[in-house]
Amino acid sequence: METYKFKTNINCGSCVKAVTPHLNKLEGVQEWKVDTDNPNKVLEVKADTADAQTIRSTVEKAGFKAEQL
Fold first, then answer.
1. Residue 56 in contact with residue 11, Cβ under 8 Å?
2. Which terminus of the chain faces fewer neighbouring Cβ atoms within 10 Å, N or C?
3. In what residue span(s) does the HMA domain sit (predicted)?
């Protein structure tokens, strides 16, 4: 299992709610969380088969930015 981290602009509970269905539907993702207290709003994703580019694209489709750390 790989762990990916992204700097995002997901900065509040409503933002997390907006991205939740997108990340939950993504095949190969086991768990994910956003640290909204971190200044970089770090999204951490643990995935079996999903790669960093796929995760980034999914976050962007949900309307947010994601830059891999």
1. no
2. N
3. 1-67
